[in-house]
Amino acid sequence: xxxxxxxxLRSSPSEDTSPEMGLLLGHALAMxxxxxxxxxxxxxxxxxxxxxxxxxxxxxxADVIDVGIVTGPALAMAASKGDCAVYVTEYxxxxxxxxxxxxxxxxxxxxxxxxRHLDKFFMDPPELPESGSLGHVFRYxxxxxxxxxxxxxxHPDRAECTIVLDCNCGPVAESAPQILxxxxxxxxxxxxxxxxxxxxxxMDDHGICSDEVRRxxxxxxxxxxxxxxxxxxxxxxxDEKGRELTPEQVFALxxxxxRPKSIAVPIDTTMLVDDAFHGRLDGGEDPDTDLSDGETxxxxxxxxxxxxxxxxxxxxxxxxYDGGIMYGNLSMMPDGIQTAAVIAxxxxxxxxxxxxxxxxxxxxxxxxxxxxxxxxxxxxxxxARIQDVxxxxxxRGDAWRVDMEGGWYLIRLARCPDxxxxxxxxxxxxAYLIGLMEIAGDLVGECVRSQ
Length: 451
What we know:
This protein has three domains: 19-141, Alpha-D-Glucose-1,6-Bisphosphate, Chain A, domain 3; 145-357, Alpha-D-Glucose-1,6-Bisphosphate, subunit A, domain 3 (Alpha-D-Glucose-1,6-Bisphosphate, Chain A, domain 3, 3-Layer(aba) Sandwich), CATH 3.40.120.10; 363-449, 2-Layer Sandwich (TATA-Binding Protein), CATH 3.30.310.50. The longest helix is centred in the C-terminal third of the chain and has 20 residues, at 430-449. The protein starts with 18 loop residues before the first helix and ends with a helix. The strands form four sheets. The protein has a five-stranded mixed sheet, with helices on both faces. It is of the alpha/beta class. It is built from 15 helices and 18 strands.
């Protein structure tokens, strides 16, 4: 076995993980977790990597609850049956060895500090137990059915629409078509067979290729398209014209349809989401929504999946990060299958195309300024000066956002690799946007010159 100094959880174009890493991960997890839920996707290397992980867990005395081949959301829902869960997957591309997603019992991904804690195994490796103390494997084969039933129960109304659905030859094929059919949708399923050798076209960063769906939607008037990644965590939505919606547009539609009382989004999220949440896209302000930050209302987090997960775990009904939507009534895992069901429910009585065409146009600009002072010194100046600026202020770490009547601007520190200050502004009006950039630029200049 190689003398590793850290656990490599995921492969990359420059470095593959290995079964040896799976064995080490099993040993490390068993230090603090005595019962681990394990599931996998349909990538060719996932079976090998899963067996290595299970061997590491069992040889360290931990029990394994094997849920078989499942989607990420189904695995997240089953995570509560153990002390944590591991999803063996590689949905982002082909030619890379499958890796490991570590999941807490509430369905959220492990935080950075939890992952760093696993490296403790290399500093003080525990002795492995004797054969009489090895762990056991218990098979739980109902995870998919439980997940499907739960999602279906959230959509009691029928969705009379036609959907072209690409399952990407992944385990999502055992959930999405069944749920959408049960809702009353007319579903044309593509790539719904189990095929370890299936290769789609050029995929985006989330492992989705929507080209085949687009061609089918364009030849099927009135239908919408849904393309899933193999893990079921992400969904790409195409309207009745075959236009692929942006993730922000999909989240805005989800908010409009579900009308949650609270959502969690990163601090740099577009105004479109604000307008959807506050009811401005469909006939005025919703008087029941809380416009303040806090336990209810629109919660802006630091930029990162962990922060959004924490906000959802603390009570936000929906979370949004990097194209993924988290549903507090399911788990903290991004769930493309539930997103597909939500959009189907909306399409049953509405034209997705017409709704999106009615969205305002949002203009955005950004720039970066070299920061000659230290991050600490700049942050001190910003903290002092931000108190006197006009607008609603939100501070999250090294990011300061100011919302005004006609738009917002964000000032944040960036380290890539040298320290700089990034300014982002957004408005529906070009002149107003220019004004926002000038205000933010002047504020940054004052902070820098005061050093």
